[in-house]
């Protein structure tokens, strides 16, 4: 099963994984170029993946419920809220995402290539749900 790794290992991933596990994060956004650059297909409804925490451990199985590819300017408030990161507006959500996408770590991951993030940048909006919490199964008794 493919791995679902949100952000990079560390505090941000820990917060995102926690929000997924407590049900407050049911959506995510990726740059479309992340899929093309890594040779991965865009997720499809029904696809399952293993959610990985910062320690590299599997913690849950998530299933894609819906996917849309839209220009960055097309992200709506409902999607921003469903990302579960506490942003009070689409503008706040966008600023946080642009900061991440323009970070040194993300630039290194994508091979800078001089890309810019603007209103027309294609993004993948994915909705998902947790179908199995692996923490219970993997804990010693």
From TrEMBL:
Coiled-coil regions, chain positions: none
One Pfam family this sequence matches: ASCH
Matching SUPFAM superfamilies: PUA domain-like (SSF88697)
Residues of the ASCH domain: 6-132
Domain of life from the UniProt record: Bacteria
Name of this chain's protein: RNA-binding protein
Annotated organism of origin: Streptomyces abyssalis
């Amino acid at each position: 099963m493919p791995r679902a790794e949100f952000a990079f290992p560390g505090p941000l991933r820990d917060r995102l994984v926690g929000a997924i596990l407590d049900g407050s994060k049911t959506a995510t956004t990726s740059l479309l170029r992340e899929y093309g650059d890594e040779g991965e297909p865009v997720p499809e409804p029904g696809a399952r993946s293993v959610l990985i925490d910062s320690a590299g451990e599997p913690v849950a199985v998530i299933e894609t419920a819906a996917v849309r590819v839209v220009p960055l300017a097309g992200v709506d408030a409902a999607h921003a809220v469903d990302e579960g990161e506490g942003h009070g507006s689409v503008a706040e959500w966008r600023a946080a995402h642009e900061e991440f996408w323009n970070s040194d770590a993300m630039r290194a991951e994508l091979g800078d290539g001089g890309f810019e993030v603007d209103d027309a940048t294609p993004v993948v909006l994915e909705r998902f749900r947790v179908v199995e919490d692996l923490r219970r199964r993997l804990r010693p008794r």
